[in-house]
Amino acid sequence: MGCPNQQSKVVAVSGDTKDCSCRPPRSSSAFMVNSEIGAVLAVMRRNVRWGFHYTTDEDQIDHPLIKSFKEIRKQVFSWQHRWHTINPVVYLQPFLDVIQSDETSAPITGVALSSIYKFLTFEVIDLDTVDVADALHLIVDAVTSCRFEVTDPASEEVVLMKILQVLLACMKSKASVNLSNQHVCNIVNTCFQIVHQASSKGELLQRTARHTMHELIRCIFMHLPDVCNNNQAFTHGGRSHLGDEVSVPENDHSSASKLQDNGYTGSKIELGSPLNLSTNIPEVKMDHETIGEADQSKSHLVAEPYGVPCMVEIFNFLCSLLNAVEHVGVGPRSNSLTYDEDVPLFAFGLINSAIELSGPSFGHHPEMLALVQNDLFHSLMQFGLSPSPLILSTVRSIVLNLYHLMRVKLKLQLEAFFSCVLMKIAVNKHGASYQQQEVAMETLVDLCRQPGFIHEMYANYDCDISCSNLFEDLANLLSKSAFPVNSPLSAIHVLALEGLIAMISGMAETMGDNDQIPVLEPDASNLEQHESFWNVKCESYDNPDCWAPYIHKMKHIKKKLMIGADHFNRDPKKGFQFLQGSCLLPETLDPMSVACFLRYTSGLDKNLVGEYLGGHDQFSVDVLQEYAKTFDFQEMNLDTALRVFLETFRLPGEAQKIQRVVEAFAERYFEQSPNMFADKDAALLLSYSLILLNTDQHNAQVKKKMTEDDFIRNNRGINGGNDLPREYLSELYHSICENEIRMTPEQGPTVAALSVVLDLVDQEAVLQTCIDGFLNVAKIAGCYHLDDVLDGLLVSLSKFTTLLLPMSIEESILAFGYDSKAQKSTLAVFTIANMYGDYIRSGWRNILDCVLSLHKLGLLPARLGRDVADDLESNSEDSVRSSLVSPIKPALAPAWKSFGLMGRFSEFLYYDTEKPAPQPSEEQVEAQKRATETVKECHIDSVFTESKFLQSESLLHLSRALILASHEDENGAVFCLELLITVTLNNRDRIMLLWQNVYEYIANIVQSAVMPSTLVEKAVFGLIRICRRLLPYKEELTDDLLKSLQLILKLDARVADAYCEHITREIMHLVKANAGQIKSHLGWRTITSLLSITACHPEASEPGFETLEFIMLDGAHLLPANFVLCVNAARQFAESRVGDIARSTKSLDLMAGSSVCLVKWSREAVGEEPETAAQLYQDIGEMWVRLVQNLRKVCIDSREEIRNRAVLILQQCLTGLEGIHLQDEAWVQCFDSVIFPLLNDLLEIVKEKPAKEYQNMEGTLILSLKLLSKSFLHSLPRVSPSASFSKIWVGVLSCMEHYTKVKFRGKRSEKIHELVPELLKNTLFVMKSTGVLSPNCSNGLWEQTWSHVKDLAPSVQSEVFPDDEPQTVVAGAVPEVNLVVP
């Protein structure tokens, strides 16, 4: 209320106000604390609970929480000048008490949390504060054990968000370096609990919680590069066990609950204890009282400032989340976090953040590196095959970061991921979707774009004998993927091309611009003397002169080893010989060299390696000992060592071989772990016991499983008479039970044992047990997609069918019909084929061998191999199309038709030699009956009719096996060909997978045939059958299918003649059923070519002409694409002398009727664009010219009726087509190539051919003269403006002149002599009336005309031009003259 213009001023007594920065001065901290105390008290006083309390003497007292705030208020201002000496716990404690009190409501707790957040962000507590570590620990302990009363969901979410803020502020504070490992783990643990609890709350809390979790991970792992590895060494016992179970319970929303009941159901991360997500959250306690050096070290690590120990625990926790997806329940209110896709995405996002910030530092800490190499890559391999493109994209980002930051430490892991995930998805090996393929291809292309990636791939993998050829595989993949096969160009094709270009560019860039290309010495890689390839080392990787020749040499060695491995897999002796010749093994083999070859060479058949190592000769025993010495079993448990050892080969099936192998292992293990056992016998006995336990626990045939007590009891006293520790045996027992030692992917001991027993057994019960064992092995192999196991099973079983033994038909049927083992084995073979065909590869050959044997024995059903659509075929076609019949019967007659007397006589002789077959005995009848019943139970037909359900790779192997099996005898080849055609027709939706192999096989049969045979017949009609059946469904393959029919045109003349009629009838059925699907010129050319060659065939011409008539009659199926082809074919039928005159006449009528289509197409072109119409008119003109040219050829036929009709039809086509639009050039071409040549040819025939051969040619000449005159007059408006008109007119006059001179039997023809002047006069009248011919013609036409006319008809000039004067005529007007020639 003072003076209006006077501004009040405050006198600053203290000097602390000079700092104007964002950070408040020290003296301001007291005011800030006082302000926050007031804020908390204000909220508390709004609730009557926090009012005054009365004692018995009615004295007023404050609640303890309020009282503590007031006590601080009394002192806070006295601290402002010595604030840095005040323990922050003093003024923080009241706030922390409120946060931990279960009496406070959510608003009060929220204000207290806001106060703590303010103290942290405004640096009231900083790095220089006294006892700052204790203060931070108290804050974290209080916030992570926060308790409050739930009043409403909104206020609860506010408190949770403020908890997240405070915890993140603790980590972002400069003083956070004083936080202990345990407290950092508690912070992450609490935040993750909120992330999980937020799944049932609002979207804002969910996003905030996840964001906070990401920020926490960034803050923590940003610190890793600054951590000193020496000071932060982490003991082996200090980290939690990998792969511990993670479980997330349901939420509890009760009021007045503790922290976990308000949304914190989740995990606690503890050093040295398993990761556990449980409903009841235990307090973090480390056992400090346990005596022991490791425990003291652990206690020390918990308390010291955070570093590698907590980061190991947190990263381990994040990896464990990826293994917890299947344990996460989906509740009624759970959101996306609990879904299988969101959990890994969240975990991978956190992991990626950690790797991006501190990836290079991971390699400096063994525990961190081990987590990446084992746990993380296990999850990346698993989720890399996820059907979700989003997960694959996230995995892609992590792998790219790992490659960029840690590739030196992750060589084997990256190799496994590239080859087993990225490349297989990119080529659709796992049935990947298009999106997955695209993401995988993008990853590969991004890798190719990395500088040096190509060179690193080649040097580290392709030139390493223990690695796969990743560079070569990647180049092949990109090359194949960049090439679109029978499909339009897609994004994947473009991506692959970019990757290929990136690879090429990467290689080209290293060459530089100079012309000097570094070339290694020519003999640098040639091994002139033996050198142990497993010991070859590079002297210096820093010197290119050292490592470049080294890489070149290793690549050479690897190529030779791969060839040697291939030889070894076929014949071990030849493999060793090749390697000796390549100087990779010494001239005289020694055990160590052979052992190292078997140990370090990839691609070897593990069955053969096991058999060789188990050999009984001394050299094999020595090799086995050396082989065992190549392993390092130090610090390995016995079960782990056994797994490592047995992964490198397959245990042989013979008991003595197994004993030798296990003895060698036990001796090596005892040598390296002498303190574990009393002697090597103890290691041997326990190894045997583990193998038996593995079989017991993981074999479905064993009903009563061995218990832990049984296992321990069985191993009593094996350690030199003493017992092994129970804990040690218990650990081994659980390891084997939980993780099987896989020893039987191929012809392992189980299959070998079953085979041996099956070979020796005669008892029915044991026999059935063996067969059931085979089927159960097949079931397991099918479940795990072990195709090599199934192939091995089929090899073993097929030996017991007796179908492959060389016996006569009668002996084979008797043996099979009365042999229960053979019947059960056969049934097992086809049960495996029907149930697990998807995973059979080379085993199809064994199956087909059995099928062929049954076919030879006549035991197969008559309808074997028929596809479903065969039932719809008419009976009339069954005689043409071959079907599989059960018995092999001798043919009653040759397969081809015999023409001529000798052929018929030979047939009669053949019939005469037939002898009645002997009657079978009762024993044979019974054997036949039993065998037939067994075969019926096998359902062999469904193996082929249901092939449409086989996976693509198995189907391809089946088709190849059918082709290979057909190389036996002709009967077998015919049978296999029928099956191949059936399989092809049953897989019409995947025809491109089979078509190339099927077509090449049929083409080989057709082109190599020189005489008719059943096989050729099956091949030809099978090909037509495939075309008939596929044309309606595969429009994009129409041209390829029809083009394949050109093989018929390549048949040997004798073969073609034998089957011509049947082929033509099949083509007729094909055309009638699919004429609408044939659109292209190529397709119609094949069809018309096949029809044309039948025109002169006695039996085939009838169906051939019927087919042509179906196409051409009324223009039903005439198209611009087939017009000329059909006209050519019709002309050949018209000229053919096979058949009667009527067929030739019909052929001419078809040619005449085809002109209607030209008129129709010409009219349709009127509405088109000018350019399009012009092109159509040109095409129509060309087709018209080809039509009249073909008619001209028939006009010189020797048969009078055909010849004259052809002339009349030609005249009709030249003058009677109304509406057709012909260009002027077409008429000029018509005169030059049709009309004039026709008249000349007819004249030559009259002069040179005998009259008996060409009768009544006079009539034909008269018709041709009329054709000449009418054609000239009809085309006059078109040709008169042409520069060639004079030539045409003179040609017309010359033809008339020549025809007047023709003589028949020495005399001139009076009819022609009378006809020519009349035709000439009519022509001159028209030319006069149109102004084409007049005395004033400047082109000499007048003079040329009369010089020719005066010899033909001297009086015509005076009749047409009586006064010899030009007359005025209207151009284009035609006077009424007699244009109708008598």
From TrEMBL:
SUPFAM superfamilies: ARM repeat (SSF48371), Sec7 domain (SSF48425). One of its GO terms (biological process) is vesicle-mediated transport. PROSITE patterns: SEC7. Residues 256-265 have a biased composition (Polar residues). One of its GO terms (molecular function) is guanyl-nucleotide exchange factor activity. Residues 550-739 form the SEC7 domain. This is SEC7 domain-containing protein. Residues 240-271 are annotated as: Disordered. It is found in: Cytoplasm, Cytosol; Membrane.
